[in-house]
Amino acid sequence: MPNDRSAPADTSRTPTAPDAVAPAVPVVPGAPAPDAVTPAPVHPPGVAAVPEGVAPAVPDAPTPAAPRGYRAVFAVAEFRAVFAAHLFSLLGVVVSELALTVLVYDLTGSPLLSALTFALGLLPYLIGGTLFAGVADRYPARRVLVVCDLLCAACVAVMLVPATPVAGLLALRCLVAAIAPVFTGTRMAALTDILGEGDLYVLGRSLLRIVSQSAMLIGFGAGGVLLTVLSPRGAITVTAVTFLASAALLRFGTRARPARSGDGGGTLLKESLAGARLILGDRRVRALMLLFWVPPMFVVAPEALAAPYADAIGVPSAALGLLLCSMAVGHIGAELFVGSALSPRNRSRIVLPVAAVGLLPLVVYAVRPGLPLAVAALALAGAGAAYVIGLDQWFVDAVPEELRGRAMTLLTAGLMTVQGLGMALAGLAAEFFPVHQVVAGSGILGTVCTLLLVAEVRATAPGRMSDTEGRDRADRHVTSG
C-alpha cells in the first residue's frame, strides 16, 4: 500500500549487508572518545529514506476533475452575474415589447402604429451601433453597462406616466433600442476580460444566445399571462424592475476594469465613425462580419411570413405558434450539442460547411409543404445557425483588442438591422409572389450569397492573404489605438 511504502524500514528485522556497516572511526590520542556510531538503516529498493523526526509523506488525495464545457463557464462567478443580468433584462424587454404594442393599440386603435412599435425595436440599432460605438472602448465596461441599464429603466419609467403621448412612447422605444447595441457590444467585449479569448468565451457567448432564443419563447408567453392580470402599463412596470435588477447584478457582481482605449481627444461621434472605418476596412474582419449578417437576413423570411403561410395552407391559428417557435427550438438544440459535444477544433471545422448549407432547408417551401414538413424544415434552418459558435472565436482572433468594443457593437447593430431589413423585403416580395415561393427564393438566394462569403472567408484565412495585405492589416492594428 502507498502508506506502507513511504514508512521507514524496520532495521531491527532487516539484515544488514557488510558494505552497509559504518566504517570504524579511529581514536585520536588526547581527543574525546567518539559517540557510538549507529549503522545507517537499509531501505528496500525503490523506497526513499525518511529523515528522523519527519512524518512519512502521505500521497495527496486525487483532485476532482476540473469542470468542462458549459459547466466551466458557470464556474466563473462574474459570468454568473452577467448571465443572470442578461436573463432579467431580456425577459423584461420581451414583455415590454408585447405590452407596449397592446398599449399603443389601445390608445390609437391603429394596427399600423401597433406594428411600428416592433419595427422601432430594430431600426435604431444601426444608428446607436454606429454613432455611439466608441462608448464601448472609451469608458470602463462595467460603468457603461450599468449606465445603459439605468437609462433604459428611466425611459421605461417615463412610459408609465399616463400623460405620455403615443409619439412620446414611440420615441422612448427608439431610445431604448438605440442604447441596446452599445450595451450588447460592451458586454460581448467584456466577456473576453471575464472568460478570456479562448473556448470559455465561445461557450459563454453561446449560452447568452441560447438565453436570447429561449426568451422569445418564454417571454412572449409570460407577457401574455401578465396581460391577463395586469394592465399594459402594469406589465411595462416589470421591465423597469428587470433593468434595475440587471444594473445591480452587473455593478456588484463584476469587477471594475479600465477602459480599452483612452480618450483620444476627439469627439465620441468621430471616434465611433473612425472605429467603424477601421473595422470595415479590414478585409478579414469585414468578411467574418458579413458571414454573421447575411444568413440571418434571409432566414427570417419564414418567420415574417408565418401568419400568411398558415392561412395559405389552411391550418388553425394555434399552428402559428409551431411555425414561429420551431426555428428557435432547432437553434437551441444545435447550439447545445455543438457547444457540449464538439471540441474547439471541430467547432472551427464545421463553420464554413454548416454556413454554406444552413439555408437550404427553406427550399422545401417550393413544394408548399404542410405543417409537419414546414416545422421540420424550420427546425433544420434554425440548427444551421450553430456555425456561429466557431465563428465567434475567429472574430475575436481577427479584431485587435483596442477596437473590440466598437467591433462587437457594430456587429450587434448590423445583425439586428439586417434582420429587420430581411423581414421588410420578405413582406414586400409577398405582395407580388406567393408566400411559399418567397420563402423558397430566400433559401436559394441566401445560399448563393453565403457561398460567395464562404469563399471570401477562406481567401482571408490567416496564411492565405498576401504579404502586402498582412503588412497593411498589421499597420492598421498598430495605429488604431
UniProtKB/TrEMBL annotation:
Keywords: Cell membrane, Membrane, Transmembrane, Transmembrane helix. It is found in: Cell membrane. Its main location: membrane. Residues 1-25 are annotated as: Disordered. It comes from Streptomyces violaceoruber. It holds the Pfam family MFS_1. The chain crosses the membrane at residues 81-105, 111-132, 144-164, 170-195, 207-229, 235-252, 287-306, 318-338, 350-367, 373-395, 407-429, 435-455. This is MFS transporter.
